[in-house]
Sequence to fold (486 residues):
Amino acid sequence: MDIRPGYDPRLTNEDLAPLKKQTWGSYNIFAFWMSDVHSVGGYVTAGSLFALGLSSWRVLVSLLAGITIVYFFCNLVARPSQRTGVPYPVICRTVFGVLGANVPAIIRGAIAVAWYGIQTYLASAALDVVVLKLFPSLAPYADVNQYGFLGLPLLGWCSYAVLWVLQAAVFWTGMETIRKFIDFCGPAVYVVMAVLAGYLIYKAGWGHIDLSLGEVKYTGLDAIPVMLGAIALVVSYFSGPMLNFGDFSRYGKSFRAVKTGNLLGLPVNFLAFSILVVVTSSLTIPVFGELITDPVATVARIDSTFAIVLGALTFATATIGINIVANFISPAFDFSNVSPQRISWRAGGMIAAVGSVLITPWNLYNNPDVIHYTLETLGAFIGPLFGVLIADYYLVKRQVVAVDDMFTMAPEGRYWYRKGYNPPAIVATAIGAVVAMVPVLWTGGPGMHTTAQYSWFIGMGLGFAAYLLLPKAPQPREAADELVSA
Fold:
C-alpha cells in the first residue's frame, strides 16, 4: 500500500490509504457472496421465504425481485470504492466531511459488533453438536442450569472461545489469507448441502420434494402484500453487507470484474442456494417426521457420526466466513478511521471482537423480541447511510472524487466543509433514521408492525431525498491534484 507524503497523519494509515494494487477478480467477489449467503442464518432466511403461505412460484418471483434490488444497489455502492481504492469510512469523507465520516463509521461499527457476536454464537452452537456427538459424557456441561455463567453453559463458553480465537487468527493474518479463506468456504458448503440433499432424497424419494413449505394461504391480490414483505426481508437481510461492500470492492481489479462477481454471487447463487435449501428442508418432514429449517439440527439427526461431524464443522466454517467478511473487516476499518495513528486495522478488529463478548450475544439471540427490533433498527440506520452516500456520489458530485482531499485537514480541501463536518449529510441521516424508527418502536400503532418491515426502504428513501433537498455548502474548487471519475 502507498501512503503519500502529503496525507495528514490524523486521517491516514496504511490500511485506509488508497490501494496501490487491486487484484481481486470476478471469482473472488463471487466467493465473497457465497461466504455471505452460505451460513446458518442465510439457510434459515431462505427457508423462511418458502414458509410464508405463498405458492412456490410467487416465492421465487419475490426472491428474484429482492436479490435483484440488492445486486443493483451493491453495484452502486461498489463503484466509488473500486475507483478510488479506499474503504467505506474513507469514501464517506466525501459526503460527511473528513471528520464527519466518523458518524456513519461508528454507527456501522456498533451494528457489526452485535452481529459479530451473534454469528460467533451460532457457529459455536454448531461446534457444540460435534463435541456432544463425539463425547456424550460432556452433556451436563451443556446445561446452563448446572454449569452456566451469564446465560451460557460451560461447553458453550469453551466453543465460543475456540471460534473467537480462530476468527481472530484468520483476521490477524491479513486480507490475502481472508481472501483465500472465503474462496474456500462458499463452495465447501455447496458440496456438503448437495450431499445432505442427496442423502434425504435417498431416504424419502424424489416424490416428497415440495417447494411450498406449508399450506398455501395467499393467492391473487391477497398474495401481493406478502410478496412485498418477502422482498423487503431479502433486502433487509443483505442491508449490512450491501453497505459494507465498498470495503471489498476496493480490491477489485476492475469495476466490470466486480459487477460480474456480483451477478454470479447474488441473483444466480442466491436462487440456487434457496432452491437447495427448500428441497432439503421439505425432505426433513418424511425422513424425520417434522420440518427442520436449521441445517445443524438436520445433520444432527443423521445416524452417522462422520456425517454429523462433517456437516456441523462445515456450517461452522461457513458461519466463520460470513462473520469475518461481514462483521469483522468492516468495523476494523470503522474504528481505525476514528483515530488512524492510534488504531490500526488489526486493532480496530480486535476492539470489535472484544465488544462482541461483552454484549453477551447469546442472550440477544435467545430473545425473539430483541432479534425483531435489532433487524428493523439495523435497516432504519443503514438505509439513510446508504441513501445519503448514493445521492451525493451520483447526483451531487457526479461521480468525481478528489482522492488527495480525503486525506487533508486543510480548510481549502474539498471535504473540509464546516470544520470537517458536512451538516446536510448528518441531518439527512438523522431524518431518515428517526422517521424509519417510528414504526419499529410504535408497535401498537395502526399498520406499524407491517410498516416496520420496510424500515430500510423508508430510511434510505428519506435520507436520499432529504440530502438532495437540504441546502449544500458552496461547490468545491475546480482545481485538484488528483480526480477520479467514472
Observations:
- The domain at 14-368 is CATH 1.10.4160.10 (Hydantoin permease).
- The longest strand covers residues 400-402.
- Residues 33 and 141 are 36 Å apart (CA to CA).
- The chain has a mean pLDDT of 85.
